[in-house]
Amino acid sequence: MKALILIGGMGTRLRPLTCVTPKPLLPILNKPFLEYQIDLLKRHGITDVVFCVSYLPRSFKDYFGTGEKWGITIRYVHEKSPLGTGGAIRNAMHALKGTTLILNGDILTDIDVTKFIAYHRAKKACVSIALTRVKDPTAYGLIETDKNGKIGQFLEKPSWEEVTCNTINAGIYLFEPLALEHIPAGVHYSVERGLFPSLLEQNFPLFGYTAPYYWMDIGTVEKYMQAHADIMANRIKVAIAGKKCMKNVSAGKNVKFGDNLQCDGTLVCGDSVIIDDTVTFSGAVSLGNGVTIGKGTVISDSVILDGTRIGEGVRLEKVLIGKHCVVEPNAVISPGTVLGDKTTITRYSKL
Prior knowledge:
Blueprint: E1 2-6, H1 33-43, E2 48-53, H2 57-64, E3 73-78, H3 84-91, E4 100-104, E5 107-109, H4 113-123, E6 127-133, E7 142-145, E8 151-155, E9 167-175, H5 177-181, H6 191-201, E10 206-210, E11 215-217, H7 221-232, E12 243-246, E13 249-251, E14 256-257, E15 262-263, E16 266-269, E17 274-275, E18 280-282, E19 284-287, E20 292-293, E21 298-300, E22 303-304, E23 309-310, E24 315-317, E25 320-321, E26 326-327, E27 332-333, E28 338-339, E29 344-345
Parallel strand pairs: 1-2, 1-4, 2-3, 6-10, 13-16, 14-17, 15-18, 16-19, 17-20, 18-21, 19-22, 20-23, 21-24, 22-25, 23-26, 24-27, 25-28, 26-29
Antiparallel strand pairs: 4-9, 5-11, 6-9, 7-8, 12-13
């Protein structure tokens, strides 16, 4: 079976980080996000993967190449202009054969793909849609199924009076070739708003798969940071890079810790991190490769990407800092702040 991953979006909700790095290549705990999806596919025996690229396509080829390093085969299909979920799938139709697993390229999940495939085949479905449950159904388009899992209707962001279920599209699909043929070629098209309702109207067998699994769309700053915290809290079954070097602290190679390190939460460090004396961490903190932290700095619930230098006496809480930034001594950065790559914050600044 082949898998197709939709990674053509511009990641506008994660700007400024995505101005130079495509969203699927942003690191989560020092590992490009897309590697988590590849790991998931490999765990379930899928090693033939198609990447649908559009925004900064060269970045993916430069990093993943043919996929040999990961033990998979990668083929790239390029959209000259964004075609939407349906248009991107149709554009890659020539590279697909038989039943195809399709993933949105911003979904962090540990769904049991093997069970999903078995369900799809048992139901003899034309399309199966993985579903996930949410607390606020009014914020999403809902998918209603009967007791056998057959999809009965799609509800687009209903009011509370209209809510009949709490299951939403998880952005993970199984398609039979017949479904691909119903997508128009060469136009911007949505499977969610176009294909699925059309197939339902024509009485094709569409099924929803509901099971307990972790699911997170990493497409906003808040969700991107939450994904870090959830992995560190073991809410999803994935491995954390590096080795446990002390309680609640994992580190890569050549990491140097100063004296009187205090960690009241969970800390993950990449390679070649340098932490000076009397630094305090709390909550969930991720430090990228080559990050340096100055003496007396206090960091809480934050993500700091590769090559950034944090000076002495800095205070950081719930912030996201891009690559190769400089935060000079005694700066204070307020919760919710996002710094793009190569930003400099001068000493004693308060943001």
